[in-house]
Design a protein that fits this description.
With 144 residues, the chain is of the alpha+beta class. It has 2 domains: 101 residues, Winged helix-like DNA-binding domain superfamily/Winged helix DNA-binding domain (Arc Repressor Mutant, subunit A), CATH 1.10.10; 31 residues, no CATH class. It contains 3 helices and 12 strands. It has a 5-stranded antiparallel β-sheet with strand order 4-3-2-1-8, with helices on one face. A 3-stranded antiparallel β-sheet has the order 5-7-6. It is elongated and about 70 Å long.
Length: 144
């Protein structure tokens, strides 16, 4: 599953997370928490189920899950007081509540990245998005 939200891209298949086009290391349990929340979005997951899934067969204090959620919020740039992505369902659990959609398979370029086409002795800066090459006068690169 590859999902984009805000300035983030989560890739469960390659086990990668990007924020603003930069790869960000997220600890395994934090990554798994995000994966669980994205899989069932926008449904809320009970704290008990999250705890059992993240720490199978181990007793952990409820504060450990809260710490993990705080760590995840920091990684994705969310704020507990004004959440955009992670919703706390008081007395129940957590939910991914932000807008998320399937992301393209390519890694997003870092901000400020410039792509250029080198053609013979010419260097042509490409625009963001689709670029037309050919004979048309409005093409990014046309034969002089």
């Amino acid at each position: 599953m590859r999902v984009g939200f805000g300035e983030c891209v989560f890739d469960g298949d390659t086990r990668e997370f990007f924020r603003a086009g930069t790869s960000v290391h997220i600890p395994a349990k934090t990554f798994r928490l995000l994966e669980l929340l994205l899989e069932v979005r926008p449904k809320a997951i009970p704290k008990e189920r999250l705890t059992e899934t993240l720490w199978p067969g181990v007793f952990v204090a409820e504060g450990n899950l809260a710490r993990l959620v705080a760590e995840l919020r920091e990684a994705i740039g969310d704020d507990a007081h004004d959440p955009k992505f992670l919703r706390t369902v008081h007395g129940f659990g957590y939910a991914f509540a932000g807008d998320a959609e399937p992301a393209s398979a390519s890694t997003p370029p870092a901000p400020g990245t410039v792509f250029k086409l080198i053609w013979k002795d010419r260097e042509i800066a490409l625009r963001e998005g689709e670029n037309i090459l050919g004979r048309a006068p409005d093409a990014v690169a046309c034969r002089p």
